[in-house]
Specification:
Length: about 130
């Protein structure tokens, strides 16, 4: 099935799996989705991930992370900022701060996909893909 917004589909699959209480979710792969997955892992929002190269597209398997005491997902909220109908580009000094730096915004820059903090440190702007906290 072809989607017009694969990043939004990625976020929706993660959100639905967390609401259903699943431990693992499988998502069709792309380079941008792989990088977003790596960022979520580095920031501590997911437990593990694995990239599987199966024909024709590949699959990303993500082990979701839940809080130990309440079984609530670690990711409280995630959303798409830039979308195909309305792209959101920001300069390095205009990049959003998600909950005063407690959350993370994922930015697609000319130097690759990175967090808002990394983009500020590298002094590059770009398309604000999504936010997670």
């Amino acid at each position: 099935m072809a989607t017009t917004d694969p990043i939004s589909d990625y976020l929706t699959r993660l959100r639905n799996a967390m609401m259903a209480g699943h431990t693992i979710v499988e998502i069709p792969s792309s380079n941008v989705k792989k990088r977003i997955t790596e960022i979520l892992y580095d920031q501590g929002y997911i437990l593990k991930y694995k990239f599987e190269d199966v024909k024709p597209q590949g699959i990303i398997k993500i082990a979701l992370k839940y809080q130990k005491d309440s079984k609530d997902p670690v990711i409280r909220k995630m959303g798409r900022i830039s979308r195909p109908g309305l792209r959101q580009f920001k300069k390095a000094d205009e990049l959003p701060r998600i909950i005063n730096g407690l959350g993370v915004a994922i930015i697609s820059t000319s130097k690759g996909v990175m967090t808002d903090k990394e983009a500020r440190n590298n002094n590059v702007g770009g398309e604000v893909l999504c936010y997670v906290y």
